[in-house]
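User: Hello! I'm new to structural biology and keep hearing that structure can be predicted from sequence alone. Could you demonstrate with Pseudouridine synthase? Please show me the input and the output so I can see what each looks like.

Assistant: Of course. The first part below is the input, the amino acid sequence of Pseudouridine synthase. The second part is the output, the predicted structure written as tokens.
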Amino acid sequence: MSERLQKVIADAGVASRRKAEKLIATGHVTVNGDTVTAMGIKVTPQDAVEVDGVPLTQERKVYFLLYKPRGVITSAHDEKGRKTVVDLLNGVQERVYPVGRLDYDTSGLLLLTNDGELANGLMHPSFQVDKTYVARVKGIPVGEQLKQLEKGVVLDGRKTRPAKVKVIRTEKIKNYSIIQITIHEGWHHQVKRMMEKVGLPVDKLSRERFAFLTLDGLNAGEYRSLRTHEVRELYDLVETRSK
């Protein structure tokens, strides 16, 4: 079966599909010894593909759900030497990458994989999966603040999509609240900025759910492999929303 060259490179864990296209366009890729720069070329498992002279090997696809602790970088590498989410995957030999981001001081559910096709699908702007967070905020929310979050707030000239909001607990003496919020986009610092916008600055934030996936059974810093049916359901979600 033949597949597009950039997809094969992405699936091998070398780069995202977009970066793979740049590698092809700039002459870094050869197929059967010939440099290719055109998009749309298809290859089969019998073709010899090299990137910068290194033969492409198809890694086994792996999928992990990590309970990211606070104080860990969402990256495969960090030039400052700080601990990354990949450092927490003890014993994993495959080269995996995080799907999306969680801030340094945000904990919670994070997916990591070497499946470029699924990762790109999940991160595409058109894929608006439910992401549920629990935030500890300063102050006691009033009805109008909650309505603003539910209807969407304007950030950098764009309005967020309507959110689901639930107050879990309030502590009037200590002047803080625990709020659960479900959003659909993945804008930079989105939950923190939404809360700040309505006057409820965030002290702590954790992502508790991504689509149908939860942190059940995991402690901070632990991870597990996704089950076959979970991977299939994620693919089904991506394919459904791309139609």
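User: So the tokens describe the shape?

Assistant: Right, they're a compact way of writing down the 3D structure. Reading them back into a model, for example: The CA atoms of residues 137 and 203 lie 5 Å apart.
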